[in-house]
Amino acid sequence: GAEVVFSVDCTKLKDYFLPEERVFDCIYFNFPHCGRKAGIVKNRELLAHFFHSCAEVLTEEGEVHVALCNGQGGTPADQPRREWHNSWQIVAVAAGAGFILSNIHPFKAETIHGYKCTGYRSQDKSFCVEGALNHIFTRSTPLPYFKPMICKTELESQKVSFRVPQVLVDKINRGFLELNSNHPVRTVKEKLTAELSQAFPLQNIDDCPFLLHRGHLNGVCHSRIFWIIPSPEETPSTEEMSNGLANAVLFSHVDFCSDTHKNGWVNAQEGCNVSEQYYLRPSLLPIAQAIIQRGAFLPGTLHVLSGPVFRKCLITPYSMPVFHEMVFTCAVNRGTENSCIEILARNIKTSVHSLQQAVSGFKLNINLHEATSFETSELNDFAAFESQFSKIQYFICVEIDTPGSCEKGSCVGIITHYELGSSELVVVFASLNLDLLTMLICGISDWRMLWTSDARFISQFPGGQLRLFKSFSLYPPSYVHDVSFWVPDGEQFDEVAFHTIAREVSGETVIALQLIDSFQQPETGRKSLCYRLTFQSCDKALSRQEVAEMQL
């Protein structure tokens, strides 16, 4: 009952089928080859044209199966693995046509009824398929190109509109913690809250709905903050703001202060003091401290705040410019704070254990480490930044099967306390990085995956169930570029700002940014820096050409 078509050019598939027939669910290409001793480069070109051809006739949910001999593909699944330049580089080639490698398994000719491996050097004789692999590709969601976005909010009973920093456009107002969300970050938050409610009277505080704040941040490195400048241009129309889009110029590190127009929207003018500046909240700890200071709490009750926070940071595997923070605060009688910390830590530990055991077989060890046992250089970005807001007593660390050693990326929370003025009360604070905790529980190796728009991520957590995550993009290709530049005379180079530019331009596809050389001209004293950038996407097809354009 099948139709067989002969002499089909695999690089021009659409030419051989009518438009209504160009909707294939699966396209198989077993052991492609240009014939005779074609060489690696020509076979890569063959695959490139083939994948572009597939994109024109494949359904949105379709698959492309390509079987290659052992070593040809150039992925870690090949054993032994060839050097990259000596392989067909199939994942990078497929990325050029918008495909990602979603599965890979051994090719077993004996399981396919009637199949015979022939065609060795264009002859009717078999060739070796021992160790051959079947590569299964699916369509990638396209790389996003976000227009500038305008948000509106109220701050201290005043209407404020602001342009979202470009690096955060796809991460603002995602609603991961809302009631109808199945996102694993929300599930972890709800499970933790339920567990802690067994040990403490618990009250959720809806006191931090606003992302935008105004004022001065004491003790915090200002280069790490997303400063927001209300637009000095004409206030956008309601339609523009409801669409969330407007043609905009982005401003940063300029001192503006507010000036309220007759329509109630805040615009900006230059020349104000720092107390009038706006910024995206970098932590919920100051909000929790403010609640305590104004007496809006019940002694002995555990008050819970949660929401996204924003901070500029260097590009490292555990540094996130946005993540969901969960803060617990409890006022207890002086002398009982250590007991409160012990109970709080024990219940957090029990909660994480129960969550993790339901997800996977490996074991997570949760430990409380005294802050004095750490050097600042040993802390991950989350812990180091939190240390700016308060003197931390303990770090909550997660170790995977290696108790006793706290890895740099494994600090998921902090605990601190301080005396409440002349009162007999002592306030205990605990802060958790929900995103990092979710990654460790569900086996998610890349924080960017939490923010993907690809439905294949959230579909792995139906009804908010926590499961061990299985990546739908295997062995993504990486590309290395260098950039060097002169540092302007007399200026301090802001490395965090440079990393933020790399995040913005690349759409978070730069995964490493390393200073590899510096040079100072003896005669003039001018200084130049050379950085190495590594590009890689965890969820989307990323081609060599797209990376070259980002680098420019």
UniProtKB/TrEMBL annotation:
<protein>
    <recommendedName>
        <fullName>phenylalanine--tRNA ligase</fullName>
        <ecNumber>6.1.1.20</ecNumber>
    </recommendedName>
</protein>
<dbReference type="GO" id="GO:0006412">
    <property type="term" value="P:translation"/>
</dbReference>
<keyword id="KW-0496">Mitochondrion</keyword>
<dbReference type="GO" id="GO:0070042">
    <property type="term" value="F:rRNA (uridine-N3-)-methyltransferase activity"/>
</dbReference>
<dbReference type="GO" id="GO:0070475">
    <property type="term" value="P:rRNA base methylation"/>
</dbReference>
<comment type="similarity">
    <text>Belongs to the class-II aminoacyl-tRNA synthetase family.</text>
</comment>
<keyword id="KW-0648">Protein biosynthesis</keyword>
<keyword id="KW-0547">Nucleotide-binding</keyword>
<dbReference type="InterPro" id="IPR019446">
    <property type="entry name" value="BMT5-like"/>
</dbReference>
<keyword id="KW-0809">Transit peptide</keyword>
<dbReference type="InterPro" id="IPR005121">
    <property type="entry name" value="Fdx_antiC-bd"/>
</dbReference>
<keyword id="KW-0436">Ligase</keyword>
<keyword id="KW-0067">ATP-binding</keyword>
<dbReference type="Pfam" id="PF10354">
    <property type="entry name" value="BMT5-like"/>
</dbReference>
<dbReference type="GO" id="GO:0004826">
    <property type="term" value="F:phenylalanine-tRNA ligase activity"/>
</dbReference>
<dbReference type="GO" id="GO:0005759">
    <property type="term" value="C:mitochondrial matrix"/>
</dbReference>
<feature type="domain" description="FDX-ACB">
    <location>
        <begin position="474"/>
        <end position="552"/>
    </location>
</feature>
<dbReference type="InterPro" id="IPR045864">
    <property type="entry name" value="aa-tRNA-synth_II/BPL/LPL"/>
</dbReference>
<keyword id="KW-0030">Aminoacyl-tRNA synthetase</keyword>
<dbReference type="Pfam" id="PF03147">
    <property type="entry name" value="FDX-ACB"/>
</dbReference>
<dbReference type="GO" id="GO:0005524">
    <property type="term" value="F:ATP binding"/>
</dbReference>
<dbReference type="InterPro" id="IPR036690">
    <property type="entry name" value="Fdx_antiC-bd_sf"/>
</dbReference>
